[in-house]
UniProtKB/TrEMBL annotation:
One of its GO terms (cellular component) is catenin complex. GO terms for biological process: adherens junction organization; calcium-dependent cell-cell adhesion via plasma membrane cell adhesion molecules; cell migration; cell morphogenesis; cell-cell adhesion mediated by cadherin; cell-cell junction assembly; homophilic cell adhesion via plasma membrane adhesion molecules; synaptic membrane adhesion. It holds the Pfam family Cadherin. Signal peptide: none annotated. This is Cadherin 6.
Length: 274
């Protein structure tokens, strides 16, 4: 009976906030354990060959903009052929290997050497291998895994325009559409609320209101008469983190002009008796 050996990436979780991983039960679905290998031995030759190729690991995470004084710990490579006698050498290749990511060739420990910015590069794909130090031959098949940079809230919302201009007819009903403003956030929209933007009005009440989720500005007061006041300056704020305390914010100005409607009958300057 043939025996298959496996190349394991052990993920260190003792250091708070520096790294994250999926559960072992989830990982076994993409990286076969020994019991799984014996089950595969009874299947077709094609399925067995697929299991021996390099595996795509579930994602591992590092915090972007890490400010610690030490290198940020990623994980540990380990082969079941490692007897602890120094006969094996661990090798790392792929995105940033040897520069951003270094490995201790004796222990298999991987560390990140620099602060990483998710906005510059969100994902790194690396490959790991263990070789016999004496012969230079691999003792395990090459294994591939992903490091994803975990987002922090380091980008404030930015409006598509610094100043918006809009018009709305005078005497419009409450709730009449005026204009829609839009702010974007460069943080990761798939993680937490860092990129969730909420709109609010800082200046322009009680004449106008803004929808918190859409940025749509509407009239909020009846009988706004152009003859009494023609121009309004509205300031809108966009705040991330869903508007929660600690979120970052940006503002824009909206200049709104009331347009004339035919609401005044003609008047003679003076009456004249005949």
């Amino acid at each position: 009976m043939r025996t298959y050996r496996y190349f394991l990436l052990l993920f260190w979780v003792g250091q708070p906030y520096s790294t994250f991983s999926t559960s072992l039960s989830q990982r076994t679905s993409v990286f076969p354990a020994k019991k799984r290998a014996s089950e595969l031995s009874g299947n077709s030759k094609n399925e067995l060959n697929r299991s021996k190729r390099s595996w795509m690991w579930n994602q591992f995470f590092l915090l972007e903009e890490y400010t610690g004084s030490d290198y940020q710990y990623v994980g540990k490579l380990h082969s079941d052929q490692d007897r602890g006698d120094g006969s094996l050498k661990y090798i790392l290749s792929g995105d940033g290997a040897g520069d951003l990511f270094i490995i201790n060739e004796n222990t298999g420990d991987i560390q990140a050497t620099k602060r990483l910015d998710r906005e510059e590069k969100p994902v790194y794909i690396l490959r790991a291998q263990a070789i016999n130090r004496r012969t230079g031959k691999p003792v395990e098949p090459e294994s591939e895994f992903i490091i994803k940079i975990h987002d922090i809230n380091d980008n404030e919302p930015i409006f598509t325009k610094e100043v918006y201009t809009a018009t709305v007819p005078e005497m419009s009903d409450v709730g009449t559409f005026v204009v829609q403003v839009t702010a974007t956030d460069a943080d990761d929209p798939t993680y937490g609320n860092s990129a969730k933007v909420v709109y609010s009005i800082l200046q322009g009440q009680p004449y106008f209101s803004v929808e918190s989720e859409t940025g749509i500005i509407k009239t909020a007061l009846l009988n706004m008469d152009r003859e009494n006041r023609e121009r309004y300056q509205v300031v809108i704020q966009a705040k991330d983190m869903g508007g929660q305390m600690g979120g970052l914010s940006g503002t824009t100005t909206v200049n709104i002009t009331l347009t004339d409607v035919n609401d005044n009958p003609p008047r003679f300057p003076q009456s004249r008796n005949i």
